[in-house]
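debug: dumping io for the single-chain case to check the tokenizer round-trip. Nothing else runs in this session.
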Amino acid sequence: ILMRGQVIKSDEFTKKTLKMYRLNYPKSPIFLSTWNNCIDSNFHTFAEKYNINLILTEFKSPKTGYRNDNLQIIGNVRGLEEINKRSITYTLTTRTDQRFYNNNILMYLKNIHTNYPYLNSQNPKDKQIERLLAMSFDTFMFKLYGIGDMFLFGLSKDVFNYWNSQKDKRIFDREDNENKIYTLKSLAKARLSEVYFMTEFLKRNGHELKWTLQDYFKVIKDRFIIIDSASMDFFWPKYTFFEDRHKDFEDIKYKEISYADWLQIKNNQLSPNEKILDLPLISKSFKSIKKFFKR
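debug: decoded output
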């Protein structure tokens, strides 16, 4: 298990998550890839007690790239380099502010992984060995090349292959970018966050981007497995406590890809309408739990 990001000290969230994983998986190597300014002597003592491998990097505020995208690359790559040095076969990547309560997800993920082998494209640039598992949360059906970047599982070499991108050298005006009105396609072509990570991975592995739903579905069909986040009892207490925060039965733009959807995509049973990509994308506000309960 590789957890990356800054340590969440509120309610000792990161510590409690690591402790839970150690109790659930006593023999599994657990790594925390974080910044040296997040770790004090107390945390070192905690890590030693629970056999947590610390991968510490000096924090430098990024001057290029969108928001914290380059920090994500650094945190993942640093951890995965150490994991591959130790010849650890499988890796699950997750974040310091998220948690999986299912106490047997590693065996669950390995079982699914072995059921769907990857058929290499015979492209000499393609270094992918087996499929990668992504989760339904934040993986939208109509966001081109937008596999969620919060979680990934697979062979450690494949997970490293996914994250081992060049840092984004573009400079963004955050205020201008947030005020822009996008369509689904133009947002994808801006290549922010998860789209940057996925498109860089695809380009490095010899896939020519076509910026169509048909091509996006083909990539998902051939290279990935999408599993339901609920099957892992996923928890992310950021912005809202609603687990299905994106679900909207009246607006198809925010539909996430479920395992059932992925099976249909894999079996060529879904024919995407490319016109959906021209729909305007308006920022979606999350529901506050206070709106649903009265004193």
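debug: round-trip ok. Residues 288-295 have pLDDT under 50 and may be disordered.
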